Amino acid sequence: MDDITALILDDHTAFRRGFARLDDARNEQELLAIWEALALHLDIHAEAEEAILYPHLVKHGDDGEDETADAIGDHNKIRDAIAEAKLHPVGSERWWAAVGTARRENSEHLAEEEDEALPDFRRHASTELRAELGQRWLTFYGEHKNGRDLPFRDKDPQRYVADHR
Ligand SMILES: [Fe+2]
Ligand SMILES: [Fe+2]
Predict the structure, then answer these.
(1) Residue 156 CA to ligand 1 centre (angstroms)
(2) Separation of 148 CA from ligand 2 center, angstroms?
(3) What pTM was computed for the model?
(4) What is the pLDDT of residue 135?
(5) What average pLDDT does this structure show over 27-41?
(6) Distance of CA 130 to CAs 25, 91, 124, 125, Å?
(7) Torsion sign, CA atoms 158, 49, 74, 112
Protein backbone atom coordinates (compact mmCIF):
# COMPACT_ATOMS: atom_id res chain seq x y z
CA MET A 1 0.00 0.00 0.00
CA ASP A 2 1.39 3.37 -1.01
CA ASP A 3 0.68 6.47 1.05
CA ILE A 4 -0.28 9.39 -1.21
CA THR A 5 2.06 11.76 0.64
CA ALA A 6 5.01 9.43 -0.05
CA LEU A 7 4.09 9.28 -3.75
CA ILE A 8 3.93 13.08 -3.87
CA LEU A 9 7.34 13.41 -2.19
CA ASP A 10 8.78 10.93 -4.72
CA ASP A 11 7.58 13.21 -7.54
CA HIS A 12 9.01 16.28 -5.82
CA THR A 13 12.42 14.59 -5.62
CA ALA A 14 12.17 13.72 -9.32
CA PHE A 15 11.46 17.40 -10.12
CA ARG A 16 14.52 18.63 -8.23
CA ARG A 17 16.63 16.01 -9.96
CA GLY A 18 15.17 16.94 -13.37
CA PHE A 19 16.04 20.61 -13.00
CA ALA A 20 19.55 19.66 -11.86
CA ARG A 21 19.93 17.45 -14.95
CA LEU A 22 19.26 20.47 -17.16
CA ASP A 23 22.40 22.05 -15.64
CA ASP A 24 24.42 19.08 -16.86
CA ALA A 25 22.98 18.90 -20.38
CA ARG A 26 25.65 19.66 -22.97
CA ASN A 27 23.58 20.22 -26.11
CA GLU A 28 20.05 21.03 -27.25
CA GLN A 29 19.09 17.41 -27.81
CA GLU A 30 19.93 16.60 -24.21
CA LEU A 31 18.08 19.68 -22.98
CA LEU A 32 15.01 18.76 -25.00
CA ALA A 33 14.94 15.16 -23.78
CA ILE A 34 15.27 16.20 -20.13
CA TRP A 35 12.88 19.14 -20.32
CA GLU A 36 10.07 17.39 -22.21
CA ALA A 37 9.93 14.59 -19.65
CA LEU A 38 10.19 17.00 -16.72
CA ALA A 39 7.57 19.45 -18.05
CA LEU A 40 5.08 16.65 -18.72
CA HIS A 41 5.65 15.19 -15.26
CA LEU A 42 5.16 18.62 -13.63
CA ASP A 43 1.90 19.14 -15.53
CA ILE A 44 0.51 15.67 -14.73
CA HIS A 45 1.51 16.00 -11.06
CA ALA A 46 -0.41 19.28 -10.68
CA GLU A 47 -3.50 17.74 -12.28
CA ALA A 48 -3.24 14.69 -10.02
CA GLU A 49 -3.02 16.86 -6.90
CA GLU A 50 -5.98 18.94 -8.07
CA ALA A 51 -8.02 15.78 -8.70
CA ILE A 52 -7.04 13.78 -5.61
CA LEU A 53 -5.22 15.66 -2.83
CA TYR A 54 -6.71 19.15 -2.71
CA PRO A 55 -10.39 18.14 -2.84
CA HIS A 56 -9.76 16.44 0.51
CA LEU A 57 -7.50 19.11 2.02
CA VAL A 58 -9.83 21.99 1.16
CA LYS A 59 -12.62 20.35 3.20
CA HIS A 60 -10.71 18.94 6.15
CA GLY A 61 -7.51 20.95 6.58
CA ASP A 62 -7.04 23.43 9.46
CA ASP A 63 -6.15 26.02 6.85
CA GLY A 64 -7.34 24.02 3.88
CA GLU A 65 -9.03 26.74 1.88
CA ASP A 66 -6.04 29.11 1.94
CA GLU A 67 -3.53 26.32 1.30
CA THR A 68 -5.59 25.07 -1.61
CA ALA A 69 -6.05 28.51 -3.19
CA ASP A 70 -2.28 29.09 -2.85
CA ALA A 71 -1.49 25.75 -4.43
CA ILE A 72 -3.78 26.26 -7.42
CA GLY A 73 -2.26 29.71 -7.96
CA ASP A 74 1.24 28.20 -7.83
CA HIS A 75 0.25 25.41 -10.21
CA ASN A 76 -1.01 28.08 -12.62
CA LYS A 77 2.32 29.91 -12.51
CA ILE A 78 4.23 26.68 -13.17
CA ARG A 79 1.84 25.71 -16.01
CA ASP A 80 2.20 29.18 -17.55
CA ALA A 81 6.00 29.00 -17.46
CA ILE A 82 5.96 25.55 -19.08
CA ALA A 83 3.60 26.82 -21.80
CA GLU A 84 5.87 29.86 -22.33
CA ALA A 85 8.95 27.65 -22.73
CA LYS A 86 7.15 25.73 -25.49
CA LEU A 87 6.97 28.94 -27.54
CA HIS A 88 10.75 29.31 -27.82
CA PRO A 89 13.59 27.26 -29.33
CA VAL A 90 15.14 24.94 -26.75
CA GLY A 91 18.29 26.47 -25.33
CA SER A 92 17.44 30.04 -26.43
CA GLU A 93 17.58 32.92 -23.98
CA ARG A 94 13.78 33.13 -23.73
CA TRP A 95 13.50 29.39 -23.28
CA TRP A 96 15.97 29.50 -20.38
CA ALA A 97 14.07 32.45 -18.88
CA ALA A 98 10.79 30.49 -18.95
CA VAL A 99 12.45 27.34 -17.61
CA GLY A 100 14.07 29.44 -14.88
CA THR A 101 10.66 30.81 -13.91
CA ALA A 102 9.22 27.28 -13.80
CA ARG A 103 12.13 26.18 -11.61
CA ARG A 104 11.82 29.09 -9.19
CA GLU A 105 8.04 28.84 -8.92
CA ASN A 106 8.27 25.09 -8.48
CA SER A 107 10.90 25.32 -5.74
CA GLU A 108 8.79 27.82 -3.80
CA HIS A 109 5.69 25.73 -4.29
CA LEU A 110 7.30 22.45 -3.19
CA ALA A 111 8.47 24.08 0.04
CA GLU A 112 4.97 25.37 0.82
CA GLU A 113 3.37 22.07 -0.03
CA GLU A 114 5.86 20.07 2.02
CA ASP A 115 5.89 22.43 5.02
CA GLU A 116 2.22 23.43 5.15
CA ALA A 117 -0.26 21.55 2.95
CA LEU A 118 1.05 18.01 3.42
CA PRO A 119 1.49 18.34 7.22
CA ASP A 120 -2.08 19.67 7.45
CA PHE A 121 -3.32 16.76 5.33
CA ARG A 122 -1.44 14.19 7.47
CA ARG A 123 -3.03 15.56 10.64
CA HIS A 124 -6.52 14.84 9.28
CA ALA A 125 -6.23 11.87 6.97
CA SER A 126 -6.42 8.34 8.32
CA THR A 127 -3.94 5.66 7.27
CA GLU A 128 -6.73 4.05 5.24
CA LEU A 129 -7.51 7.27 3.40
CA ARG A 130 -3.84 7.89 2.65
CA ALA A 131 -3.58 4.40 1.15
CA GLU A 132 -6.85 4.79 -0.77
CA LEU A 133 -5.76 8.11 -2.27
CA GLY A 134 -2.35 6.57 -3.00
CA GLN A 135 -4.11 3.90 -5.01
CA ARG A 136 -6.13 6.55 -6.85
CA TRP A 137 -2.90 8.46 -7.53
CA LEU A 138 -1.31 5.44 -9.21
CA THR A 139 -4.48 4.77 -11.21
CA PHE A 140 -4.58 8.42 -12.31
CA TYR A 141 -1.02 8.18 -13.65
CA GLY A 142 -1.91 4.96 -15.48
CA GLU A 143 -5.05 6.41 -17.03
CA HIS A 144 -3.32 9.61 -18.05
CA LYS A 145 -0.05 8.18 -19.31
CA ASN A 146 1.85 10.86 -21.26
CA GLY A 147 -0.84 13.36 -20.23
CA ARG A 148 -3.60 11.63 -22.18
CA ASP A 149 -6.97 13.43 -21.80
CA LEU A 150 -5.55 16.11 -19.49
CA PRO A 151 -6.08 19.73 -20.58
CA PHE A 152 -3.27 21.36 -18.48
CA ARG A 153 -5.37 24.50 -18.21
CA ASP A 154 -5.13 27.10 -15.46
CA LYS A 155 -7.90 27.09 -12.86
CA ASP A 156 -9.29 30.02 -10.95
CA PRO A 157 -8.12 29.42 -7.34
CA GLN A 158 -11.20 30.91 -5.64
CA ARG A 159 -13.56 29.10 -7.95
CA TYR A 160 -11.75 25.80 -7.36
CA VAL A 161 -12.11 26.30 -3.59
CA ALA A 162 -15.80 27.22 -3.93
CA ASP A 163 -16.44 24.16 -6.12
CA HIS A 164 -14.72 21.70 -3.76
CA ARG A 165 -15.27 22.90 -0.21
FE1 LIG B 1 3.28 18.56 -5.42
FE1 LIG C 1 1.41 21.10 -6.03
Answers:
(1) 18
(2) 19
(3) 0.97
(4) 98
(5) 98
(6) 37, 40, 10, 6
(7) positive
